[in-house]
Structure formats: structure tokens, C-alpha cells
Amino acid sequence: MFATIAYDLSHMAGAMVLLAGFVVLYQRRVLGVLRAFAAQSIAVAGAAAWQAYSQEAPHLYVTAAIALLLKGIAAPIALNRIVRRLDIHRTVETAVGIGATMLAGVGLVVLATLLVLPVTVSSAALTRETLAIALSVVLIGFLMMITRRNAITQVVGFMSLENGLVLAAVGVKGMPLVVEMSVAFSLLIAFILFGMFFFRIRERFDTLDLQSIESFRGERR
Amino acid sequence: MSALPLILAIPLAGAIALAFIADHRIGGWVNVAASLATFLASLLLLVFETPEPSAFAFIDDFNIYLVILTSFVGYTAAWFSAGYIAHEIVEGRLTPAYLRFYHAMYQVLSFAMLLALTANNIGVMWAAVELATLTTVVMVSLYRTRPSLEAAWKYFILGSVGIALALFGTILVYLAAQKAMGPGMEALTWSSLYAEAPNFEPELLNLAFVFLLVGYGTKTGLVPLHAWLPDAHAEGPTPISAVLSGLLLNVALYAIVRFKMLLAANGDALAPGPLLIVMGLTSLFVAALMLYRRRDIKRLFAYSSIEHMGVITFAFGMGGPLANFAGLLHMALHSLTKSAIFYAVGLASQARGTQQLERIRGLTASHPALGWALVAGTVAISGLPPFGLFMSEFVLISSTFPRAPVLGVLLLIGLLIAFGGLMLSLHGIAFGAAERDHRPLAGSLIPLYAHLVLILIAGVFLPGPLVAWFQAVAEGLR
Question: How many CB pairs lie under 8 A apart between chains A and B?
């Protein structure tokens, strides 16, 4: 009995994270993006806490706490402040339309599922499905980074990508170093937020756009 | 008895000490001293017997040579940096407060790279690469100019994505190992992973390798994941460009090669060779074409680094004793040559007050010692004799032709294109009409010449024991 509940709850938590990933994707306002991202992080924290309980791995509670405090609460608040302080556009600047991005997102979920399920035949069902969901979340985070132009949404894309990684790491039973990895990632995120605020990075950098490589001093003038 | 704790402890202690030293001149020399001590400690690895793999450290011939190389170039770069940075203070481009930070970060970077090379745990290695990325991001943004911040941001975002993908790959490796090894730390430990590799699930391992290749490949600067590399090299302080090109790219490549060995040990997994060959050749061609019409001298040599990383990746992709031998040799010699070039470039751009190629002309007339050294370095990096890179490229090409003539031809064409690009720029730098406005050299030429002598020796006469040793490593790489 407990086993099936554990399974269903893990599934539900994973699905919530994925769903929140889509919610992040279709927002048209930056504040909406931040709220949806906070919801996703809280869902990840829930997933991690549930795994900590059901796998009897208390260290995962630390991961859950980090996800909740840093990404669920602190990061959205900090980004909110940055948006207001630096007077960044409140609407999401898209490189690809919202509808097309959503379709691409669905495509990525299909891709992730087709990629992961066949290669994990011998793993536990829960691990397989969590991994498929996690990879979908990672890919959707990527999609977000590529198709949304301003720095804030890129950072949110990166953090939701990282949510996918946490989901994958807690879903794999007995994975060591999960806590250390989430601490390392928190460092990265703290660094990003600090950097944005300190250096007032607010415009878009088309980081994946090869055109912009040569826009700097010394080249193309 | 092992020298390893010392190798990791010295940079860490150095970083802490440097964080408290306010005077930038003293800081600079403490930085040199700490780097020298690290280098000497790394030589102890050769003296003592190779220790058995412990829970933390995994030392074999492959990484011993990279540890020594890393600490050596770290030392000469610190030496070069001391003079370079003092000049930047005089010029007013940097303030002493930043330097305290810079020197501490320099040691943290050494620590992170050495940890990544020696860790016996793929999770620790991942974290070390992340740490190295963070410190270099900080250092690239050191000048606080708009282009340097933009370059640092781009490097940061792309590097973070790469790191995230590498972590996903790491989790997948763990999952692939789980069936054979059960849960626990063992399944993240290199030494036990190699022992158990034949029993891993091959499909999962394949998937993991793709993520790892893309993830660490971003850090290696392989095309099409290289977008950050020219900017980071051009906008950061030159000693950091030297360390980035000469060392950090190697560290990321080391990770890829280690995982490749894991796949090779499995047997049922896909052959990673073709993937590496395709990425290597693509990098070679794209970077070789980008060498033409560069206007910024550091950007020029940054593309040359991408080109050489492509060649090395290609070599490891081909595999086999000879190609691996060429790859290992190329890795070492590229580090030495490219950092020498960046030392020369740093001095030249300080003497002329610009990085613009059109204003760095006629160096052999205005600063003969520097100008000819840069000529020698550029000749070496384009793979001409009598320097070492000619040897490794020659071995690689001649070992590729009998096995895959088409690939051999492609490699040769790529190298020739790169050669042309470098020579065109070199002509102007060395023999163009010099501007009258130039200053005397600010820094020491000794690190530059030391590297040049080493690569010349490697090209003319590679000592027998060293060859035998490289051969043994190459055999072991699979």
C-alpha cells in the first residue's frame, strides 16, 4: 500500500515540476515568470522532501530546504528587486512566439521520453519515469534560455534547468553527493544574481547567437 | 607517502594568505612563490611511487603529466603575471583592491584545476570544474569594462549550461553503474568505475557520454560550443588568457577522455571515437577559417586554441597507441606554446597600449627580443619544424593516413588553412612598418623564453625516457 502511494506521490511531484515548467514558458510578463518559477522550485522542494522521506535518506531534506529557501523564495525576490531597480522591461521579450515555444516544449517532452525510457529498461520504474520528466524539465529550461531574450528570463531558464537536475538527482535511489551538488549549484546561482545586480546586466546577450560573437571591441567596427 | 595533499594544500593556503595581503607587489610575489611551491610539490609525484587510488585521489601516469604541466605553466604564468599586473597598475587600468582579489582567485583556480585532475570521484571532479569556471569568470571581468563584463557574462551563462549538462551526464553514469555496483559512493569513484565498466548498462552509458561530451565540450571550447572562448580570452587579463588556453581547456578535455575510456572499457557501448573525430574536425575547420581577418591579437590566438583543441580531440577520437601518443604530446606542447604566445602578446599589447593587430606591427624592429620570440611562438603554433608541435602533428597525420586516408586529408587541409591564417597575421606583426609610439617592455621575458626552449627541445630531441613514458600512457588510454 505504502509503496504505491510513495510511487504516486513521487510521480505527482515530478509532474508538478514539469507543469510549472510549462507555466514558466507561456508567461508574457517578467513578474509572472518569476512567480511560476517560484512555484516550480517549491514543487522541486516537495519532490526532494518526499524522496527524503520515502527513501529514508534524511540528507535529501537539505536539498529540499535549499530548493525551497534559495530558489523558491530568495531568488524570485532578488530578481524582482533587480527588475524594479534596474528598470527592466516588464514584458517578456521573445525570440520565438509563445505558441511555437509551447509546441516545441511538448516536442521536447516527447523527445525526452523517447530518449530515456528505452535505455533504462532495467532500472526501477520510478527512476525511469522521474528521469524522463527531469530531462524534459532540463530541455524546457534550455528552450527558455534560447527563446527568451532578456537576461532575467535567461537566468530563470537556467535555474529551472537546474530544477530538472535536482529532480533527476533525488530520483536516483542512493545517489551520493546530491547535497554537495545542490550546494555547488546554489553557489552558482548566488553568483549569477550577485553579478546581475552588481554589474547591472540588464540587456539581452544573445549568448547562443553566433552573430554577436564579434560585436566587441577590436572586431567589426 | 604521497605528495598529493601538498599539491592541493599549497594553492589553498596561498589563496587564504593572499586574501589578506593588501600590497599588490608582495601579493604578486607570494603568488609566484606559492605557484613555484606547487610545481616543486608536483615533481615529488615523480619521486615517490604512484600511490594506490584512495577514496579521494586517483593518480595514474595520465594525470601525473597533466598535474606537472598544470603546475609548471601555473608557475610561469604567475611569474609573467607579476610584471604584467604591476604595469596595469601604473597604467591605471586596474586598482590595487582588485589585485588582492585577483591573486587569491589565481590560487583558487590552480587548486580547482589540480583537484579536477586528481579527484577519484566524478562528482568532485565536476564540482572542481565548476569552481574553476567561477574563478575564471571573475577574472575575465576584472577590468570592469563593458566588453569584459559582456564577455564574462557570456562565458558564465554558456559555462553554466555546460556544467549543468555535465552533471546530468554524471547522474546518468551513476545510474548506468547502479545495476552492477549498487548504490553508494563507489559508483562515482573512477578506480572502481573502471574495474566494473564491462558490467554497466551500455545504452545508459551512451546517453551519459553524449551529455558529458556536450557539457565538458563547452568548457573545452569545441565548436559549436565555443562562442564564449574568444571573448573570454580577449577581454580578460593576459595571464588569465594564458592559463585558460594552456590549462583549463586541457582539464575539460581530460574529463572527456576519462569518460571516453569508461566507454571503451565497457565494450558494448557505442564507440566514442567517431563523435570525437567529428567534433574535433569541425572545431579545426571553423577555428582555422576564423583565423583570417582577425583584428584583435588575443582573439586571433584564442581561435588558434580552439583549432588545437580540435586537433587533440581528433587524436583521441582516432585512438590507438600512435594517435593517443600524438594527442598527449600535442596537449602538453600546445599548453607550453600557447601560454608562451600569450606572454609575448601581453607584453606586446602593453608596449603598444592596444590589442589591435593593425597597431601592433613591426615588433622585430621595435622590440627585437620580444618580436622574434613571438615569431618563434607563432611558427611553433602553426606546426612548423623545428618546434615540438610539428612532431605531434606529424605523428598524428602519419598515423591517420594508413587507417583513414580521407580523415587524414581533411586534417591536413584544416591544418594548412590554419597555417595560412596565422602566417598572414604574423607577417604584419613581425615585419610591418612599426609605429613610432611605443614604450619599453614592462615585464620579464624569462618565462616566455623558458617555454620556447622547452618546445624547441621537444621538437629537436625528445628524451628517450619521456617518449617511453608517453607511449606507456598512450597504450593505457585505449
Answer: 133
Q: Is residue B369's pLDDT more than 80?
A: yes
Let me know if residue B366 belongs to a domain: yes
Query: Tens of pLDDT along B138-178?
Result: 899 888 887 888 888 889 888 988 999 999 999 999 988 88
A27: closest CA among A84, A120, A87, A91? A91
Question: Is A218 within 8 Å of chain B by CB?
Answer: yes
Does residue B460 lie in a domain region? yes
- Residue B253 CA to residue B247 CA, distance in Å, equals 10
Angle made by CA atoms B37, B123, B111, in degrees to the nearest 5: 15
Domain boundaries, chain A: 2-203
Distance CA A218, CA A195 (A): 25
Question: Which residues in B lie closer than 8 A to residue A151 (C-beta atoms)?
Answer: 153
pLDDT surpassing 60 at residue B290: yes
Note whether residue B123 is domain-resident.
Answer: no
The candidate with the shortest Cα–Cα distance to B302, out of B323, B317, B319, B287, is B287
- Contact with chain B for residue A213, Cβ under 8 A: yes
pLDDT for A42: 94
Q: Phi/psi zone of residue B332: left (φ > 0), alpha (ψ -120 to 50 degrees), beta?
A: alpha
**Residue whose C-alpha is closest to residue A129's, from A108, A112, A107:** A112
Q: How far apart are the CA of B322 and the nearest CA of chain A, in angstroms?
A: 34
pLDDT of residue A216: 46
Q: What percent of chain A has pLDDT over 90?
A: 32
Q: How far apart are CA B428 and CA A113, in angstroms?
A: 55
Which residues have a Cβ under 8 Å from the Cβ of B146 and sit 6 or more positions away?
none
- Whether B385 maps to a domain, the answer reads yes
Q: Is B197 exposed, middle or buried (0-12, 13-18, 19+ CB in 10 A)?
A: buried
Mutation site for A-interface testing, chosen from B115, B150, B231 by largest number of A Cβ within 10 Å = B150
In this predicted structure, the answer to whether residue B356 has a pLDDT above a threshold of 60 is: yes
Domain that holds residue B304: 271-478
- pLDDT over 80 at A125, yes or no: no
Q: A residues 44-63 near B, CB within 8 Å?
A: none
Which residue out of A213, A215, A220 would a mutagenesis test of the B interface target, given it has the greatest number of B Cβ atoms within 10 Å? A213
> What's residue A217's pLDDT?
41
Q: Which of B51-55, B60-64, B200-204, B373-377 has the highest mean pLDDT?
A: B373-377
- Other CB atoms within a 10 A radius of the CB of residue B316 amount to 26
B164 min Cα distance to partner chain A (Å): 7
**Distance to chain A for B401, nearest Cα, Å:** 34
What average pLDDT does this structure show over B304-326?
Answer: 93
Listed in sequence order, the residues at least 6 apart from B9 whose beta carbon sits closer than 8 Å to its beta carbon are none
Nearest beta carbon to residue B203 from set A119, A181, A208 = A119
**Shortest alpha-carbon distance between residue A136 and chain B (Å):** 12
Mean pLDDT estimate for chain B: 89
Please count the structural domains in chain B.
Answer: 1
Chain B CB within 8 Å of residue A151 CB: yes
Q: Using CB atoms, pick whichever of A115, A180, A207 lies closest to residue B123.
A: A180
- Other C-beta atoms closer than 10 Å to the C-beta of B464 total 8
